[in-house]
Amino acid sequence: MKGYFRKRGTKWSFTIDIGRDPETGKRKQKTVSGFKTKKEAEKACAEMIAQIENGDYIESSKDTLGHFLTEWLNTSAKQTMRTTTHDTYTRCVNHRINPELGHIKLSELKPMHVQKFYSKLLNEGVTGEYIRFLHAILRSALNTAVKWQLLQKNIMTNVQPPRLSRKEKATWTAEQARQFLAFAREKGTRRYIVYLLAIYTGMRRGEIFGLRWKDIDFENGKISINQTLSWVSGKGLIFQEAKTKRSHRSISISDFVIQELKNHKLQQRKEKLQMGEAYKDQDLVAASAYGNPMNPRGVTEYFRKLTIEAALPPIRFHDLRHTHATIMLRLGEHPKIVSERLGHSNIQMTLNLYSHVTPDMQKDASTRFEQAMQSIKNTL
After folding, report:
1. Fewer CB within 10 Å of terminal CB in the chain, N or C?
2. Contact at 8 Å (CB) between 38 and 12?
3. How does pLDDT run across 126-143, given as a tens digit for each residue?
4. In the sheet where 216-217 sits, what is the strand order?
5. What is the pTM of this model?
6. What share of the chain is helix, strand, coil (3-state, %, to 5)?
7. In what order do the strands lie in the sheet with 4-8?
8. 313 touches 172 (CB < 8 A)
9. Strand spans (E) along 116-195
């Protein structure tokens, strides 16, 4: 195999055969131009010939990034992702990535394009955490493009996502959490049990709404996490299995929580009798007056309203999970136990998320160590 060289104006180009079209059987040629000297053209030509002979040559895709991302979401991603994850990825691609980068040809996408995109988002006030999520989507998608032989390499390896700044999680103290629960209980809302479980167990919102009575072992004081409830665009509320092996977990609950759950179950039975056939029993702990799943968004909005009425520092519903973890760590509970309760993938994730608690833990540990040494000294 050899190349054919030609000079057009001040630039050199080369042409080589790259095989035959599988549909027409006609010979296919590749021409590359824009070289300043013939020597540069010869070098590039030799490299391409080597790629072809080694089976490493990939013809540049004519598709745009937007077209490829749509194909990727509808095929590979759809088959391997959870429904909620796929829904989130689709919204990010359609609302953020494609409007800025979708028009660029896949083969012409450069690290500079993506880096400028990130800078623009930062200037608009988009968080570094969200941009890193977009980065993960693009990296995963372009890895697939390489596997599909649409690209020779993933340009995302040369793109630097923004560094995350460490921010202390917004949480309540134990007293504030107790105050909120007392206020919610006085309101007589059925959502009280949702807030109680979030604070006392650290369960995720979807896990609480997916919790069934059969998942609760009252005798041994344990809750098993087996499914979640999520909102998916176009489908509404759907139940799914817990996301990972670590998400499938057992959480110990106190006697107080057990009693509150029993009280809630008794009230639920009364409602079921009142509603009769209109009650659609799905065995849900967090159920509407008709037995259907509660709307997570409605519960979250009501939480915000109650927080204001109770004159407490504003936090997100998800921060109740952080509140649970922070209180446990400050009480001296081992991070591994906290990690298991939260369903984190590993203990390091827990330590990274709650690094702001570490100084307090170290001070308490230092005090306990000194007390132990002093007690030994006094016995000598």
Report:
1. C
2. yes
3. 989 999 999 999 999 999
4. 216-217, 222-224, 250-252
5. 0.70
6. 55, 15, 30
7. 4-8, 11-20, 27-35
8. yes
9. none
